[in-house]
Write a structure and sequence with these properties.
alpha+beta, four-stranded mixed sheet
Length: about 150
């Protein structure tokens, strides 16, 4: 389970990251990422007409990166989707400490993720993070193990 501070939960935030963020696709997943400096002005603009209780504060320098997951029915039935979601959460949780604190990330699983192992999902996630320049090139393949 991800810590509450690391979860992207609002539909508006998902839509903003997917619409305005940078994207990197791999065989089993697609990442949409947006840094906090781009997120804050959009939130402030939305807040002007809606009241402060509907917006979240600017995230620059606060807590871990926030991550949301999209696993559609195209991936499989309920049991398969939840299995993919659990594996993705576990893989992302291990990488939270090395991600920028002002990052908002949406991880969208593709149908091949249904048969993928955690190691395969981790490899795709790392490759996509490196492509977006969010993970250093020399970082370990599995941050939990500390093995290069």
């Amino acid at each position: 389970m991800l810590p509450a501070a690391a979860r992207l939960t609002r539909g508006q935030d998902f839509a903003l990251v997917v619409r305005r963020g940078r994207r990197a696709g791999r065989a089993r997943l697609v990442l949409h990422a947006m840094r906090g400096d781009a997120v804050a002005p959009e939130r402030e603009r939305r807040a002007e007409g809606h009241g402060a209780e509907q917006t979240s504060p600017t995230r620059a320098g606060l807590g871990p990166a926030r991550v949301g997951f999209v696993v559609s029915k195209a991936v499989g039935g309920s049991v398969v989707r939840h299995g993919v979601l659990r594996r993705l959460r576990h893989v992302v949780r291990d990488r939270l400490p090395v991600l920028p604190a002002d990052l908002e990330l949406v991880v969208r699983a593709l149908p091949p993720a249904a048969e993928a192992t955690s190691a395969e999902l981790a490899a795709d996630l790392d490759a996509a993070l490196r492509r977006l320049r969010l993970l250093p090139e020399d970082s370990p393949r599995d941050p939990a193990a500390g093995v290069a």
